[in-house]
Amino acid sequence: MENAAKPLVFIVSGPSGSGKSTLVEKILEVPGTMFSISCTTRPARPTESPGKWYDFLTEAEFDRRAKHGEFLEYARVFSRHQYGTPRRWLEEAERQGCDLVLEIDVQGAEQVKQQVPGAIAIFILPPSRTELERRLRARGLDSEEAITRRLDRARQEIQRYTQYDFLVINDDLERAGREIKSITIASRCHRSRMDRRAQQILETFGG
Fold first, then answer.
1. Taking a C-beta distance cutoff of 8 angstroms, is the pair 64, 46 a contact?
2. φ and ψ of 120, to 5 deg
């Protein structure tokens, strides 16, 4: 990231079933981005491999890391499993000169914003409750109780959309993918990011 003192931090949040993981993959197609692998105490699903989207920890190990300040943010979700973002990913992004992409919930986003005020928060919206329910059922991963719980949580999360800088409605994946990539690229061109380079160019004209 030429002329950037520190990496940008992109926060992507959205209800379960909104398609945020797919849209995060779209961001990661933009050169100079890297993903922050989260930690969780929930069991891995059959389709999940440790170290791709999550590192799976015991409660004891998670608590140990939290106690030692190793997480940028962490929270317990649904009063069950814990999720957290290791602080080391910020350091790694700076070392590699890459922008960092976090896929986290609204609780985590609020914590990151407090610690990294310049973080860019993007909220993924489903087109409707009906469509979100259809997607959750089509996945075939959740019981009726879990689907109801996820829909209730979705309503609570969507109510907090005003805390985010950008909104992407995922009713058409191709369009939503273009939009989230555009947000990523445009954020790099913000005047606050380009000021140093602009001053250097101005100096070539004699100041």
1. no
2. -105, 115
- Residue 2's pLDDT band (boundaries 50, 70, 90)? very low
Torsion angles phi and psi, residue 38, rounded to 5: -85, 165
Strands 38-40 and 120-125: unpaired
Between 6 and 195, name the one with better pLDDT.
195
- How far does Cα 34 stand from its chain's mean position? 11
Q: In what order do the strands lie in the sheet with 9-13?
A: 33-35, 99-103, 9-13, 120-125, 166-169
Instruction: State the Cα–Cα distance between residues 193 and 198, nearest whole angstrom.
Output: 10
Residue 160 sits in which domain range? 9-36+99-204
Domain total in the chain: 1
Q: Residue 1 domain-assigned? A: no
pTM over 0.85: yes
- Residue 45 has, within 13 A of its CA and on its CB side, a CA count of 9
